[in-house]
Amino acid sequence: MLPARTRRKLKLYVSSPLKLKRVRSSQGDRTPQTHNACRNMRSPQGCVLGKGIEKVSIDTKNGGLDFCREPETFSRQECACNPVRLFAIVSMQRSGSGWFETLLNSHMNLSSNGEIFGPSERRNNVSMIFKTLDTVYNLDWFSSASKNQCSAAVGFKWMINQGLMEHHEEVADYFKKRGVSLIFLLRRNLLRRMISLLANTYDKNAKLLNGTHKSHVHSPHEAEVLAGYKPTLNITTLVSNIRAAEGTAARALECFKTTRHIVLYYEDIVTNHTKLVEVQEFLKLPTQNLTSGQVKIHSGPLSGHVANWEDVQKTLKGTSYENLLKHRLYFLISMAMQSMLRRHRLKKLSGKEKEVMVDSESGINEQKRPEDSMPSLETVGLDTRDYNVR
C-alpha cells in the first residue's frame, strides 16, 4: 500500500485520458518513483511501455512530477520511458524571452513551443486555457521546436498579459497538479525594455526590413537597420509606466510564489553564462552548451537610441530609476553577446573553415582568440551594485 500522501497525489490524475501505471519505489516516498531506465536523464534510452500508458514519478524533494508518457498522436519509440519535465517561461514582451527560448531550444532534449497564448481564442476562458495546456503537456503540440521522441523537458512561453493574471488562481492550481515548473524571465533595465517596445511597435507598421516586420534579427545589418529608428518617450508618463511594469512583474511573482520556480534576469544571463547551466539543472537536464543565432538590436548607450534623450535624463534624475540611465553595463552586455554569437557561428563550421575564418575587425585568426568564457562584471572592474545587478 502506498503512503496516504502519495495516494492523494495519484488521485489527481484519475481524470487523465491516458492510463496510469503506479510504480512503487523500494526506497520509500522521498525518492523519485520511476523505472530504472527513466532515472538517468543523460541518456535518451528507455524502455517501451504499452501504448497509451503514462508513468508518474512523484518527486517530493524537488516539488515536481516526472512523466513517462506515450502521446496519442505519435510514438516516442525507444524514449517512451524517459521522464518529461513540464515548464513554462513567464515573461513580458521585449524582455529577451525570444532570445532565451532559442537558447533553450538548442538543447537536444528540450522543446519550448513559443507564445501559445498569443491568439486570444486560446485564453477566452479557463477551460480553453486548460485545453491548450493539456495539448502542450501531453506532447501533442507540434511546432518547429518539437523534439518528439527524445523530449526530456517540454514547455512554452507565457506572457504575463496573455490571460495569466486574469485566471492566476486556477492556473496556479493546475501547475501544482501537473507538476509544472516556472521560469520567470524578467528585465532589470525597464527603460531599455520600453524603448524596445516602442521601436518594435513602430516597425510593425513601417516594416523597415524590405517590407517585412521582424521582432528578432540574425545579422548585424538587420540590427543596424532596426536600431536606426529612435522613438520619442512620453516624459509625462515615463515614471508611472516604469513603475507599472515593475508592479506587474512583482504581482506575477507573488501569485505564483508557491509554484516551483526560478527567477532569471536577462542582463544576468548575458553577462554570466553559468545562469544557463542553472536553468538546465533546474529542469533536470544534462548540461549542454546552448547557442543562439539572434543579434541584439539596441546595443551601446541609450543616448543613441532615444530621440529626446536629454528630456529623459532630466525626468529620471533624482528618482529611484536614475540608475537605468547608466550604459556601461550594456557595453559589456553587447560585447558578451557578440562573443556568444561568434562561438555559435564557429560551432557550425568545419575544422578547415575555422582555421581560415578571420576576424574582419582585427585580422586575427578567430580560432586563436581567448573566448572560452564570457566576461563577468567583476572581471572588467564594474561594481554590480551600481547597475542593480546581483
From TrEMBL:
Signal peptide annotation: none
Region of interest: Disordered: 352-390
InterPro entries on file: Nod_factor_sulfotransferase (IPR052796), P-loop_NTPase (IPR027417)
SUPFAM superfamilies: P-loop containing nucleoside triphosphate hydrolases
Gene3D superfamilies: P-loop containing nucleotide triphosphate hydrolases (3.40.50.300)
Protein name listed in UniProt: Sulfotransferase
